[in-house]
Specification:
The protein is mostly beta strands. The chain has one domain: Thrombin, subunit H (Beta Barrel). 14% of the residues lie in helices and 43% in strands. It has 1 helix and 9 strands, in the order αβββββββββ. It has a 7-stranded antiparallel sheet. Strands 2-3 form a two-stranded antiparallel sheet. The protein is globular and about 50 Å long.
Length: 123
């Protein structure tokens, strides 16, 4: 159940990112379903979702360890408000004519609900 913080902060997070952010496209693969009659697997189409994110930020040199965080990785954040998908590791994210993969996701709670997703991206 949403708390008072959720109902206050989530719309503010979305408003700030929508005002100052940039468009990014998340490429979400369709779900596969199994047909037991003929044994086939049917895949639904790929969906693309355009949302606003914080501008990409590079990691500081003291955070780059060459393993979990590499030198060309960046991070973006998106609001959870109104999302039609849930970000997950491995999804493709496109902005500035470059494709990235989500390597790690940190969920930011504003109370009982997720208010923001921070994602580590890698090319």
């Amino acid at each position: 159940m949403a708390t008072a913080l959720d109902t206050t902060l989530i719309p503010k997070i979305k408003s700030i990112i929508d005002t100052y952010g940039k468009n990014v496209v998340f490429v979400v693969p369709g779900l596969a379903s199994y047909d037991p009659d003929d044994g086939s697997v049917v895949e639904s189409g790929v969906k693309k979702y355009t949302v606003k994110s914080t501008p990409p930020a590079n990691y500081s040199s003291d955070m780059i360890d060459g393993d979990i965080i590499e030198s060309n990785d960046c991070s973006i954040s998106i609001s959870s408000s109104g999302l039609l998908f849930t970000p997950e590791n491995g999804l493709e994210v496109t902005f500035d004519n470059q494709s990235w993969r989500i390597m790690n996701i940190i969920t930011g709670y504003t109370g009982d609900e997720i208010g923001i997703y921070e994602m580590q991206l890698r090319r």
